[in-house]
Amino acid sequence: MDTARAGCAIAPDELGGFVAALLGAAGAPAAHASAVADALVEAELQGLASHGVMLLPLYLKRIAAGSVDPTATGVIVSERAGALVMDARNGFGQVTAAHALSLAVARARINGLAAVSVRDGFHFGAAGRWAAAMAREGCIGIATCNTRPLMPPPGGAARVVGNNPLAIAAPGGPDGDPVVVDFALSEAAMGKIRLAEEAGIAIPPNWATDAAGTPTTNPAEAIAGMLLPAGGAKGFGLALMLDILSGGLSAGALGGQVGALYGDPAVPYRCAHFFLAIDVASFRDRADFGAAVAGLLRGVRASPAVEPGASVRVPGEGARARQRAATMCQLPAGTAAALRDSAAALGCVVPTALSP
Protein backbone atom coordinates (compact mmCIF):
# COMPACT_ATOMS: atom_id res chain seq x y z
CA MET A 1 0.00 0.00 0.00
CA ASP A 2 1.16 3.55 -0.73
CA THR A 3 1.27 4.94 2.80
CA ALA A 4 1.45 8.50 1.50
CA ARG A 5 -2.02 8.03 0.09
CA ALA A 6 -3.41 5.64 2.71
CA GLY A 7 -5.29 8.30 4.65
CA CYS A 8 -6.89 7.61 8.01
CA ALA A 9 -10.06 6.40 9.69
CA ILE A 10 -12.06 8.40 12.21
CA ALA A 11 -15.35 7.79 14.02
CA PRO A 12 -18.29 9.74 12.54
CA ASP A 13 -19.19 11.47 15.80
CA GLU A 14 -15.60 12.54 16.36
CA LEU A 15 -15.29 13.81 12.81
CA GLY A 16 -18.58 15.70 13.08
CA GLY A 17 -17.52 17.35 16.31
CA PHE A 18 -14.20 18.38 14.77
CA VAL A 19 -15.89 19.82 11.68
CA ALA A 20 -18.38 21.75 13.84
CA ALA A 21 -15.53 23.07 16.01
CA LEU A 22 -13.69 24.38 12.95
CA LEU A 23 -16.82 26.07 11.63
CA GLY A 24 -17.55 27.55 15.05
CA ALA A 25 -14.01 28.93 15.27
CA ALA A 26 -14.59 30.53 11.86
CA GLY A 27 -17.68 32.36 13.13
CA ALA A 28 -20.58 29.99 12.51
CA PRO A 29 -23.34 29.81 15.15
CA ALA A 30 -23.44 26.41 16.88
CA ALA A 31 -26.67 25.33 15.14
CA HIS A 32 -25.27 26.22 11.71
CA ALA A 33 -21.95 24.52 12.38
CA SER A 34 -23.77 21.37 13.48
CA ALA A 35 -26.05 21.38 10.42
CA VAL A 36 -23.13 21.65 8.01
CA ALA A 37 -21.09 19.05 9.90
CA ASP A 38 -23.99 16.58 9.88
CA ALA A 39 -24.43 16.94 6.11
CA LEU A 40 -20.72 16.54 5.31
CA VAL A 41 -20.29 13.50 7.56
CA GLU A 42 -23.46 11.87 6.20
CA ALA A 43 -22.01 12.19 2.70
CA GLU A 44 -18.83 10.45 3.89
CA LEU A 45 -20.85 7.60 5.38
CA GLN A 46 -22.80 7.16 2.15
CA GLY A 47 -19.61 6.92 0.13
CA LEU A 48 -20.07 10.39 -1.39
CA ALA A 49 -16.63 11.74 -0.51
CA SER A 50 -16.90 14.38 -3.24
CA HIS A 51 -19.67 15.97 -1.14
CA GLY A 52 -18.02 15.31 2.19
CA VAL A 53 -15.40 16.90 4.42
CA MET A 54 -13.00 17.51 1.54
CA LEU A 55 -15.16 20.62 1.01
CA LEU A 56 -14.59 22.04 4.49
CA PRO A 57 -11.28 23.85 3.82
CA LEU A 58 -12.96 25.54 0.86
CA TYR A 59 -15.89 26.61 3.04
CA LEU A 60 -13.50 28.01 5.64
CA LYS A 61 -11.51 29.96 3.05
CA ARG A 62 -14.70 31.52 1.73
CA ILE A 63 -15.84 32.49 5.23
CA ALA A 64 -12.48 34.13 5.87
CA ALA A 65 -12.60 35.94 2.53
CA GLY A 66 -16.17 37.17 3.12
CA SER A 67 -18.03 35.42 0.29
CA VAL A 68 -19.91 33.13 2.70
CA ASP A 69 -21.87 34.51 5.65
CA PRO A 70 -21.88 31.78 8.31
CA THR A 71 -24.73 33.49 10.20
CA ALA A 72 -27.23 33.85 7.32
CA THR A 73 -30.40 31.75 7.22
CA GLY A 74 -32.05 33.24 4.12
CA VAL A 75 -34.82 35.81 3.77
CA ILE A 76 -38.13 35.39 1.91
CA VAL A 77 -38.40 38.17 -0.67
CA SER A 78 -41.52 37.01 -2.54
CA GLU A 79 -44.47 34.99 -1.27
CA ARG A 80 -47.58 33.87 -3.16
CA ALA A 81 -49.45 30.85 -1.76
CA GLY A 82 -47.33 27.90 -2.88
CA ALA A 83 -44.63 29.94 -4.64
CA LEU A 84 -41.85 31.54 -2.59
CA VAL A 85 -38.52 33.14 -3.43
CA MET A 86 -35.69 33.25 -0.90
CA ASP A 87 -32.52 35.33 -0.93
CA ALA A 88 -29.94 33.12 0.77
CA ARG A 89 -27.58 36.06 1.31
CA ASN A 90 -24.59 33.80 0.71
CA GLY A 91 -25.31 31.63 3.75
CA PHE A 92 -24.32 27.98 4.07
CA GLY A 93 -26.29 25.97 1.52
CA GLN A 94 -27.03 23.33 4.14
CA VAL A 95 -28.66 25.94 6.38
CA THR A 96 -30.67 27.81 3.75
CA ALA A 97 -31.76 24.54 2.09
CA ALA A 98 -33.19 23.26 5.37
CA HIS A 99 -35.05 26.56 5.81
CA ALA A 100 -36.38 26.50 2.24
CA LEU A 101 -37.61 22.92 2.26
CA SER A 102 -39.36 23.37 5.61
CA LEU A 103 -41.30 26.25 4.05
CA ALA A 104 -42.05 24.17 0.95
CA VAL A 105 -43.42 21.27 3.02
CA ALA A 106 -45.55 23.55 5.22
CA ARG A 107 -47.10 25.27 2.19
CA ALA A 108 -47.59 21.98 0.36
CA ARG A 109 -49.78 20.74 3.19
CA ILE A 110 -52.01 23.75 2.61
CA ASN A 111 -51.92 23.99 -1.18
CA GLY A 112 -51.16 20.43 -2.28
CA LEU A 113 -47.75 21.43 -3.58
CA ALA A 114 -45.33 24.29 -3.07
CA ALA A 115 -41.98 25.45 -4.38
CA VAL A 116 -39.24 27.62 -2.96
CA SER A 117 -36.68 29.09 -5.34
CA VAL A 118 -33.47 30.38 -3.79
CA ARG A 119 -31.02 32.93 -5.17
CA ASP A 120 -27.55 34.02 -4.06
CA GLY A 121 -26.97 30.68 -2.40
CA PHE A 122 -23.92 28.58 -1.64
CA HIS A 123 -23.02 24.93 -2.08
CA PHE A 124 -25.62 22.71 -0.37
CA GLY A 125 -23.90 19.33 -0.68
CA ALA A 126 -25.79 16.30 -1.93
CA ALA A 127 -29.18 17.23 -3.42
CA GLY A 128 -30.62 13.86 -2.37
CA ARG A 129 -30.38 14.84 1.30
CA TRP A 130 -32.93 17.61 0.77
CA ALA A 131 -35.30 15.62 -1.45
CA ALA A 132 -35.26 12.82 1.13
CA ALA A 133 -36.00 15.26 3.95
CA MET A 134 -39.18 16.33 2.15
CA ALA A 135 -40.14 12.69 1.54
CA ARG A 136 -39.83 11.94 5.24
CA GLU A 137 -42.46 14.63 5.78
CA GLY A 138 -44.92 12.82 3.50
CA CYS A 139 -44.11 14.66 0.29
CA ILE A 140 -42.59 13.77 -3.01
CA GLY A 141 -39.54 16.02 -2.86
CA ILE A 142 -37.59 17.48 -5.77
CA ALA A 143 -34.35 19.39 -5.22
CA THR A 144 -31.96 20.91 -7.72
CA CYS A 145 -29.49 23.76 -8.14
CA ASN A 146 -27.28 25.32 -10.75
CA THR A 147 -23.49 25.48 -10.85
CA ARG A 148 -20.95 27.38 -12.88
CA PRO A 149 -20.70 26.22 -16.50
CA LEU A 150 -18.70 23.01 -16.76
CA MET A 151 -20.20 21.21 -19.77
CA PRO A 152 -20.24 21.95 -23.51
CA PRO A 153 -23.36 21.71 -25.68
CA PRO A 154 -23.58 18.89 -28.23
CA GLY A 155 -20.85 19.56 -30.77
CA GLY A 156 -19.55 22.50 -28.74
CA ALA A 157 -16.07 23.28 -27.39
CA ALA A 158 -16.88 25.70 -24.56
CA ARG A 159 -18.42 25.39 -21.10
CA VAL A 160 -21.96 26.79 -21.18
CA VAL A 161 -23.98 24.94 -18.51
CA GLY A 162 -23.26 23.36 -15.14
CA ASN A 163 -23.43 19.68 -14.22
CA ASN A 164 -26.60 20.60 -12.34
CA PRO A 165 -27.92 17.90 -9.98
CA LEU A 166 -31.46 16.54 -9.83
CA ALA A 167 -32.81 14.64 -6.83
CA ILE A 168 -36.31 13.18 -6.50
CA ALA A 169 -37.49 11.30 -3.41
CA ALA A 170 -40.76 9.66 -2.44
CA PRO A 171 -42.07 7.98 0.72
CA GLY A 172 -42.41 4.21 0.72
CA GLY A 173 -38.83 3.09 0.21
CA PRO A 174 -37.12 0.09 1.85
CA ASP A 175 -37.00 -0.10 5.66
CA GLY A 176 -39.18 2.98 5.89
CA ASP A 177 -36.62 5.17 4.14
CA PRO A 178 -37.63 7.23 1.11
CA VAL A 179 -36.71 5.99 -2.34
CA VAL A 180 -34.23 8.53 -3.71
CA VAL A 181 -32.76 9.24 -7.13
CA ASP A 182 -29.90 11.74 -7.03
CA PHE A 183 -27.53 12.46 -9.89
CA ALA A 184 -25.62 15.30 -11.47
CA LEU A 185 -26.03 15.74 -15.21
CA SER A 186 -22.37 15.12 -15.97
CA GLU A 187 -20.96 11.62 -16.24
CA ALA A 188 -19.08 12.34 -12.99
CA ALA A 189 -19.01 15.15 -10.45
CA MET A 190 -16.01 17.48 -10.44
CA GLY A 191 -15.43 16.47 -6.82
CA LYS A 192 -14.76 12.88 -7.95
CA ILE A 193 -12.21 14.13 -10.47
CA ARG A 194 -10.48 16.17 -7.76
CA LEU A 195 -10.35 13.07 -5.56
CA ALA A 196 -8.80 11.13 -8.46
CA GLU A 197 -6.19 13.87 -8.89
CA GLU A 198 -5.37 13.71 -5.19
CA ALA A 199 -5.07 9.92 -5.36
CA GLY A 200 -2.92 10.05 -8.49
CA ILE A 201 -5.22 7.79 -10.52
CA ALA A 202 -6.69 8.06 -14.00
CA ILE A 203 -10.34 8.76 -14.70
CA PRO A 204 -12.56 6.97 -17.25
CA PRO A 205 -12.36 8.51 -20.75
CA ASN A 206 -16.08 9.37 -20.85
CA TRP A 207 -15.94 11.66 -17.80
CA ALA A 208 -14.31 14.78 -19.22
CA THR A 209 -12.26 16.48 -21.91
CA ASP A 210 -9.16 18.63 -21.81
CA ALA A 211 -9.36 22.36 -22.54
CA ALA A 212 -9.37 21.67 -26.29
CA GLY A 213 -12.36 19.34 -26.06
CA THR A 214 -10.47 16.05 -26.43
CA PRO A 215 -11.54 13.24 -24.05
CA THR A 216 -8.92 12.68 -21.34
CA THR A 217 -8.13 10.25 -18.55
CA ASN A 218 -5.87 12.79 -16.81
CA PRO A 219 -7.75 14.38 -13.87
CA ALA A 220 -5.62 17.55 -13.94
CA GLU A 221 -6.46 18.05 -17.62
CA ALA A 222 -10.11 17.38 -16.85
CA ILE A 223 -10.21 20.01 -14.11
CA ALA A 224 -8.85 22.55 -16.58
CA GLY A 225 -11.15 21.24 -19.32
CA MET A 226 -14.83 20.31 -19.51
CA LEU A 227 -17.12 17.70 -18.01
CA LEU A 228 -19.09 15.56 -20.42
CA PRO A 229 -22.89 15.38 -20.00
CA ALA A 230 -24.48 12.09 -19.02
CA GLY A 231 -26.52 10.73 -21.88
CA GLY A 232 -25.12 13.20 -24.39
CA ALA A 233 -27.67 15.70 -25.69
CA LYS A 234 -30.33 14.46 -23.25
CA GLY A 235 -28.17 15.17 -20.23
CA PHE A 236 -27.16 18.54 -21.58
CA GLY A 237 -30.77 19.54 -22.27
CA LEU A 238 -31.93 18.55 -18.81
CA ALA A 239 -29.03 20.41 -17.19
CA LEU A 240 -29.97 23.52 -19.16
CA MET A 241 -33.57 23.36 -17.97
CA LEU A 242 -32.50 22.86 -14.34
CA ASP A 243 -30.41 26.02 -14.66
CA ILE A 244 -33.54 27.87 -15.81
CA LEU A 245 -35.64 26.30 -13.05
CA SER A 246 -33.16 27.36 -10.36
CA GLY A 247 -31.62 30.63 -11.45
CA GLY A 248 -34.44 31.72 -13.73
CA LEU A 249 -37.34 31.47 -11.28
CA SER A 250 -35.36 32.97 -8.40
CA ALA A 251 -34.12 35.97 -10.44
CA GLY A 252 -30.67 34.74 -9.47
CA ALA A 253 -27.54 33.84 -11.38
CA LEU A 254 -27.88 31.91 -14.63
CA GLY A 255 -25.18 30.09 -16.59
CA GLY A 256 -21.93 32.02 -16.50
CA GLN A 257 -23.24 34.35 -13.81
CA VAL A 258 -22.70 31.55 -11.27
CA GLY A 259 -19.25 31.84 -9.72
CA ALA A 260 -16.53 29.21 -9.60
CA LEU A 261 -16.76 27.17 -6.40
CA TYR A 262 -12.98 26.78 -6.33
CA GLY A 263 -12.35 30.25 -7.75
CA ASP A 264 -11.56 33.49 -5.92
CA PRO A 265 -12.83 32.86 -2.36
CA ALA A 266 -13.72 36.54 -2.00
CA VAL A 267 -16.21 36.37 -4.90
CA PRO A 268 -19.67 34.98 -3.95
CA TYR A 269 -20.61 31.67 -5.54
CA ARG A 270 -24.19 32.86 -6.26
CA CYS A 271 -25.68 29.49 -7.17
CA ALA A 272 -29.46 29.11 -7.11
CA HIS A 273 -31.52 26.30 -5.56
CA PHE A 274 -35.04 25.01 -6.23
CA PHE A 275 -37.18 22.85 -3.94
CA LEU A 276 -40.58 21.41 -4.83
CA ALA A 277 -42.72 19.57 -2.28
CA ILE A 278 -45.79 17.61 -3.43
CA ASP A 279 -48.01 16.61 -0.51
CA VAL A 280 -49.01 12.99 -1.07
CA ALA A 281 -52.04 13.22 1.25
CA SER A 282 -53.49 15.97 -0.95
CA PHE A 283 -53.73 13.46 -3.78
CA ARG A 284 -54.47 10.13 -2.10
CA ASP A 285 -54.24 8.33 1.22
CA ARG A 286 -50.62 8.50 2.31
CA ALA A 287 -50.51 4.93 3.64
CA ASP A 288 -51.97 3.55 0.40
CA PHE A 289 -49.39 5.53 -1.59
CA GLY A 290 -46.55 4.20 0.54
CA ALA A 291 -47.82 0.63 0.14
CA ALA A 292 -48.05 1.07 -3.64
CA VAL A 293 -44.50 2.40 -3.85
CA ALA A 294 -43.20 -0.35 -1.59
CA GLY A 295 -44.89 -2.95 -3.79
CA LEU A 296 -43.33 -1.47 -6.91
CA LEU A 297 -39.89 -1.53 -5.32
CA ARG A 298 -40.32 -5.14 -4.16
CA GLY A 299 -41.05 -6.04 -7.76
CA VAL A 300 -37.90 -4.31 -8.93
CA ARG A 301 -35.75 -6.06 -6.34
CA ALA A 302 -37.36 -9.42 -7.16
CA SER A 303 -36.63 -9.09 -10.87
CA PRO A 304 -33.97 -11.45 -12.29
CA ALA A 305 -30.33 -10.34 -12.25
CA VAL A 306 -27.98 -10.82 -15.18
CA GLU A 307 -25.36 -12.50 -12.99
CA PRO A 308 -26.51 -15.64 -11.12
CA GLY A 309 -26.69 -14.99 -7.39
CA ALA A 310 -26.42 -11.22 -7.78
CA SER A 311 -29.04 -8.89 -6.33
CA VAL A 312 -31.02 -6.11 -7.95
CA ARG A 313 -31.28 -2.90 -5.96
CA VAL A 314 -33.43 0.20 -6.21
CA PRO A 315 -31.96 3.71 -6.49
CA GLY A 316 -30.32 4.99 -3.32
CA GLU A 317 -30.30 1.58 -1.63
CA GLY A 318 -26.55 1.17 -1.95
CA ALA A 319 -25.79 4.50 -0.29
CA ARG A 320 -28.14 3.71 2.60
CA ALA A 321 -26.57 0.29 3.04
CA ARG A 322 -23.10 1.81 3.16
CA GLN A 323 -24.24 4.36 5.72
CA ARG A 324 -25.77 1.68 7.99
CA ALA A 325 -22.66 -0.51 7.71
CA ALA A 326 -20.09 2.24 8.22
CA THR A 327 -18.54 2.53 11.65
CA MET A 328 -15.69 4.80 10.58
CA CYS A 329 -15.14 7.56 8.01
CA GLN A 330 -12.19 6.84 5.72
CA LEU A 331 -10.44 10.07 4.69
CA PRO A 332 -7.72 10.37 2.03
CA ALA A 333 -4.35 11.61 3.27
CA GLY A 334 -4.75 14.89 1.39
CA THR A 335 -8.12 15.61 2.98
CA ALA A 336 -6.76 14.85 6.46
CA ALA A 337 -3.78 17.13 5.85
CA ALA A 338 -6.03 19.98 4.68
CA LEU A 339 -8.16 19.60 7.80
CA ARG A 340 -5.04 19.73 9.99
CA ASP A 341 -3.95 22.92 8.22
CA SER A 342 -7.37 24.46 8.83
CA ALA A 343 -7.22 23.51 12.50
CA ALA A 344 -3.80 25.10 12.88
CA ALA A 345 -5.03 28.32 11.28
CA LEU A 346 -8.10 28.46 13.56
CA GLY A 347 -6.45 27.27 16.75
CA CYS A 348 -8.48 24.06 17.03
CA VAL A 349 -7.31 20.74 18.45
CA VAL A 350 -6.82 18.00 15.86
CA PRO A 351 -8.32 14.60 16.78
CA THR A 352 -5.69 11.92 17.34
CA ALA A 353 -7.18 9.88 14.51
CA LEU A 354 -6.30 12.66 12.05
CA SER A 355 -2.75 13.20 13.31
CA PRO A 356 -0.01 12.46 10.78
Report on this structure:
By secondary structure, this protein is an alpha+beta fold. Helix content is 40%, strand content 17%. The chain is built from 11 helices and 12 strands. The strands form 3 sheets. The protein has a 7-stranded mixed sheet with strand order 2-3-4-11-5-6-7, with helices on both faces. The chain has a 3-stranded antiparallel sheet with strand order 9-8-10. A hairpin with a 5-residue loop joins strand 8 and strand 9.
Q: What's the number of helices?
A: 11
From the alpha carbons, calculate the radius of gyration and give it in angstroms. 20 Å
Placed side by side, the strands forming the largest sheet appear as 2-3-4-11-5-6-7
Estimated helix fraction: 25-40%
User: Got a strand count?
Assistant: 12
- Give the end-to-end Cα distance, rounded to a whole number of Å: 16 Å
Q: How much of the sequence is in beta strands? A: 15-25%
Strand count, sense and closure of the main sheet? 7 strands, mixed
Question: What is the average per-residue confidence, as pLDDT, rounded to a whole number?
Answer: 93
Low-confidence stretches: 1-5
Q: H/E element string?
A: EHHHEEHEHEEEHEEHEHEHHEH
- The structural class is alpha+beta
Shape: globular
